[in-house]
Specification:
Blueprint: H1 7-18, E1 24-29, H2 56-68, E2 71-77, H3 85-97, E3 102-107, H4 120-134, E4 138-142, H5 148-155, H6 160-173, E5 179-183, H7 200-221, E6 225-229, H8 234-239, H9 260-277, E7 282-283, H10 287-298, E8 313-316, E9 323-324, H11 354-371, H12 373-382, H13 384-399, H14 411-415, H15 421-426
Parallel strand pairs: 1-2, 1-8, 2-3, 3-4, 4-5, 5-6, 6-7
Antiparallel strand pairs: 8-9
Helix pairs in contact: 2-3, 7-9, 9-10, 10-11, 10-13, 11-12
The structure holds iron/sulfur cluster (SF4) (2 copies).
Length: about 425
């Protein structure tokens, strides 16, 4: 059973908004070990680096502290967290016992590969049952391309797509609705349709078509929820030399390298295509965030709300067990979580890590509105597109019942939306 928010947590978080804060999110990297081959990630299995893993007792201590300090969202990331499935399950149950309402994890689904072998069905059904009973709220499964073969080649996991297709109904019947997680790359459209050597117009068209193909593909696979990870490219790091990835989900590989102008084009393509698919699949990515990130690159460097990384959102690295403001400010270790004291931080907008940027953007108007209502009204008055997209996001999140991965998609709620009007409203 998912914990959900208690009345006390709701009241406390309202008070927190009034003080200019947002509910805390902690991403804990269990290990940087992985069994996949993804060239877009430094933790891939071919990298000869030494691998580390946080101990179970250490992890339980971190979870207790996170609960005591009022963190509402806890993500277990890797590497591949399911390499330690039994321990992961224990940690999810432990976090649930400590009343953390939003517990999330993700996988490359390697354990779904052997879909045509004896014992597969009973094994996956047992896992679906255990995960569903653990208190897990959201489970992500990575899918890199609209083309199954391209995805399996990128990941080095042949057979995984057939396994996902076969397994999803068993998860659904246990009341757990995994999300397809796309990391934007130049092969979203398939290996024979790469986004290489394209001008901005070509890239925009490519991304729109490929993203549509991606959403069609994951809907056909059986997903009812999806998320998009924005490109973390070395262009960001070149522009912001203070960034140093401590989270290895980054690589200088060409398939995920995009210049800032290209990223702006991608945000725009996403903002145009997501509303089309909103009635059919629950898509996390807020349109207001995509708009703000695009505008941050093209027009107004401080348009987006500052990221809550280092303020309310944090990352714990498997490398040293230390706390960081996020996965990309590796030069700013905050030391051990148990010794950490909250300190003022400068506003940061140095990267587009959606894990922190999307909720920062979506929650920005709440704490601004409660703390400095005049400032929020000014922003809404000055940028009507932004305010329309933000209200549309709120309505959509409510229709999706806040992306509770324990609840089935309700088509009637989503089809009422008129989400596509956001396209014409925002298109220039
Ligand atoms: S992206 Fe995920 S599955 Fe791929 S190598 Fe990195 S941690 Fe492993
Ligand atoms: S914008 Fe957020 S995630 Fe990116 S470097 Fe700054 S604090 Fe970290």
């Amino acid at each position: 059973m998912a914990a959900g928010y208690s009345p006390f947590q709701t009241a406390f978080d309202f008070f927190r908004f009034c003080c200019g804060r947002v509910p805390g999110q902690l991403v804990i990297q269990l290990s940087d070990r992985c069994n996949a081959a993804c060239p877009q990630c430094d933790m891939n299995r071919s990298n000869p680096m030494a691998r580390r893993r946080l101990g179970q007792i250490e992890m339980e201590g971190l979870i207790r502290l996170a609960a005591a300090r009022g963190f509402r969202s806890l993500s277990f990331t890797g590497g591949e967290p399911f390499l330690y499935y039994k321990d992961l399950l224990r940690l999810i149950r432990y976090a649930h016992k400590h009343k953390i309402p939003m517990i999330r994890t993700g996988t490359n689904a390697f354990f779904m590969r052997a879909w045509n072998q004896a014992g597969y069905e009973s094994r996956i059904k047992r896992m679906a049952h255990e995960l569903s009973a653990s208190g897990l709220r959201n489970l992500w499964i990575s899918i890199d391309s609209q083309d199954p073969q391209t995805h399996e080649e990128i990941r080095g996991l042949p057979g995984v797509i057939s396994g996902v297709r076969k397994s999803l109904p068993w998860f659904h019947s246990e009341g757990l609705y995994p999300a397809a997680n796309l990391g934007i790359n130049r092969l979203v459209g398939g290996a024979d349709r790469r986004a290489d050597d394209m001008d901005e117009k070509g890239l925009y068209q490519y991304m729109k078509e490929s993203l549509a193909g991606f959403f069609d593909f994951v809907i056909e696979l059986g997903f009812t929820m999806a998320n998009v990870c924005y490109p973390m490219s070395s262009a960001s790091l070149e522009e912001a030399p203070t960034l140093l990835p401590v989270y290895g989900a980054y690589s200088p590989h060409a398939m995920v390298q995009f210049q800032p102008r290209e990223k702006a084009v991608i945000f725009r393509a996403l903002r145009e295509i997501i509303p089309v698919y909103r009635p059919r699949i629950r898509i996390f990515s807020p349109l207001s965030s995509l708009y703000a990130l695009e505008k941050q690159i093209t027009e107004e460097a401080d348009f987006a709300f500052p990221c809550r990384g280092g303020l309310d959102f944090f990352f714990i690295s498997a490398r040293d067990g230390n706390l960081y403001p996020c996965g990309y400010r590796g030069q700013e270790s905050l030391g051990s979580f148990s010794d950490w004291k909250r300190k003022p931080q400068s506003p940061c907008r140095l990267c587009e890590w959606e894990c922190f940027r999307d909720p920062s953007e979506l929650l920005g108007p709440f704490y601004t509105g409660l703390g400095q209502p005049g400032r929020l009204l000014k922003r809404f008055r000055e940028d009507k597109i932004y305010s329309r997209l933000w209200w549309s996001d709120l309505r959509y999140y409510k229709s999706c019942r806040f992306f509770d991965g324990r609840l089935a998609l309700e088509s009637t709620r989503l089809s009422r939306g008129g989400w596509e009007s956001s396209i014409s409203d925002s298109a220039e």
